[in-house]
Amino acid sequence: MSSTMRDDIRSSGEASCNGIVRRMVRLPRSLIGGFSRAMGHGRGRIGIGGRRTQNLPSNFQMQNTEEPLIVPEAFAFLHGFEQHYGTMHPFFYACQFMEALKIAKDEHKFLFMYLHSPEHPFTPSFCRETLSSELVVQFLDANFVSWAALTDREEGLQMAATLNPSCFPFCAIIAPAHSDSIAVLQKMEGPISPTELMGILQRTVEEQGLAFHSQKAKQAEQNQKMIADHRLRDEQDAAYLAALQIDKEKEKLKSSALAERIQKPVQVPKKANSEKLENHSNKKNNGKMKEASATRDSQYKEVANRGKDPQAAQILIRFPNGERREQCFLCTDKVQAIYRHIDSLGLPGIGNYRLISSFPRRVYGVDQMGMMLKDAGLHPRASLFLELL
């Protein structure tokens, strides 16, 4: 690197490490807004003069091979360069700056930018000797995405105002950053030989390339994790919807069975038989109430006895009306045992329901009936909410 260029870099106040300049630059809105217009033209890859076989954009026209090329303003640099210095030059992407930056990002490469000032006295020697050097051309084409513009036209003028070069010729090595910013890894201002330029390019690739690619790999890993998380969430939602559908089908079957019983004609018995049936029903109901009371008393005793057992699972059940009841089970009992316990309470208004744990939220429905409490995460203590369906 020339002493003039080092002085320019130091005077710019940018952070430098081992000769590598790092500077975050915010791009003008006009450049960012021009990206959508650039995408409408596609990626224009053109090197006027026939050094390569390129695809010309639709608005690039030629009258015939003997007449001069009618070059749009976006390709004025390439046209002028090859007229004065020949066709041996890096493969400059003839497109908008933001599109070239996107190409570099997609190909995991740095962007080599050259701002061409035709009137500057150092420009001819730099273009003829350095940019036209076969070694420089091969290295840039293999490791960089190259983009160039005239300093007195459109995007070249905007980039010159943004980067504020102190001397020409001006080159920069750029890495994509945020949507409205770029990372300037290296600035080369003033005349520079092919050997000096190659040294800067190689050192930048070696010192910055590893961090650049590791960042890309980390981003790719994060993207894969996000995709896996979304897939898992979708699978859980699908399983929940399937269980909900099963519950709805069961409720529909119960409703249809109840409707059939209601529609059946009821035979009216004689008065004596009616009284006998009524007395029998009352005795039966009283017997059920006594049995339920005895069951609850025995269960309360069971809770007190099992509470000290390390194999016991204390389950607190919260009902929709705010009531709470606690019951003790064995850790080897199945989730179905909790449902049987709730059914045995004979609580009014408890028909079709399911059990849900609040944190972490988990539904203990039909598919979990056969799980042991310890495998279901309900041992040694758990709190379940009874949700009516």
From TrEMBL:
GO terms for cellular component: endoplasmic reticulum. Residues 308-386 form the UBX domain. Residues 272-281, 288-307 have a biased composition (Basic and acidic residues). It comes from Rosa chinensis (China rose). Residues 258-307 are annotated as: Disordered. Keywords: Ubl conjugation pathway. One of its GO terms (biological process) is ERAD pathway. It holds the Pfam family UBX. PANTHER family: FAS-ASSOCIATED PROTEIN (PTHR23322), UBIQUITIN-ASSOCIATED (UBA) PROTEIN-RELATED (PTHR23322:SF71). Signal peptide: none annotated. This is Putative UBX domain-containing protein 2/7. GO terms for molecular function: ubiquitin binding.
